[in-house]
Amino acid sequence: MVVDRAPTEIDDPGRHWLRAKDVTGFPRNARDGYFPAHDVTRPAATTAADLPPVDGATPGVLPTDAEAVVDAATVADADRLALDSTYLSGKWLVERPPEAVTDLWEGVVADVEAGRFWDAKVSTRAGCEAFGETDHAVLVFTPNYFDRADVDRVRRRLREAHGVTEEIRYRPDVYTLDGVHEETLGPLTDSAAARFRA
């Protein structure tokens, strides 16, 4: 693996994200081995029988300052939308200050390269400036958030191998469909909404 520039060094205008494939050379569609290696159902093979349970107030919880909890029906609607569109990927979000992000990113990229993680990206210095953030966002993706065992396995790996011990949130990609389904998803389109927290 070669990581030629740290995320904190990338200040090229418009280059807001550094993707794992940029440093591993593996495009997402070349990672077919991930599915059998981790016993994950491919999104196209997922059925209504695989819909995840909507358990209590955990899904869709917004930060306490927003004082809003997304109702279970809205979360279930989002899950059905994800199933219908086979748009089942999602990601754990880890935030790190500039002085700590490079070590985490290099470890995450090594796990993508080894097939332990499916995909990842990190905000660059240019991205942090564009988004008005001081911390970098490291996003670690899973291909099918209906597969809770895989989602939890990736979280455990982040905790045990990368020292991510604080609570983090998991956000399905269907929540960020550029407002196309904002009426259906309602408050889930809020950037702070999450399907899981751990």
CATH topology: RNA Cap, Translation Initiation Factor Eif4e
Which term fits the overall shape?
globular
CATH class: Alpha Beta
- Name the helix and strand elements from N-terminus to C-terminus, one letter apiece: EHHHEHEHEHEHE
Task: State the end-to-end CA separation.
Answer: 29 Å
Proportion in helices: 25-40%
Task: State the secondary-structure class.
Answer: alpha+beta
- Look at the structure and name the CATH superfamily: RNA Cap, Translation Initiation Factor Eif4e
Mean pLDDT: 86
Q: What is the topology, as strand order, of the major beta sheet?
A: 1-3-4-2-5-6
Biggest sheet features? 6 strands, antiparallel
Are there runs of 5+ residues with pLDDT below 50, and where? 57-67
Please give the number of β-strands: 6
Count of individual helical segments: 7
The Cα radius of gyration reads 17 Å
Architecture per CATH nomenclature, i.e. the level-2 architecture: 2-Layer Sandwich
Proportion in β-strands: 5-15%
Task: Tally the structural domains.
Answer: 1
Features:
7 helices; alpha+beta; RNA Cap, Translation Initiation Factor Eif4e; 6-stranded antiparallel beta sheet; 198 residues; 6 strands
Quick structural summary:
This is Phosphothreonine lyase domain-containing protein. It contains seven helices and six strands; from the N terminus they run E-H-H-H-E-H-E-H-E-H-E-H-E. By secondary structure, the chain is α+β, with helices and mostly antiparallel strands.
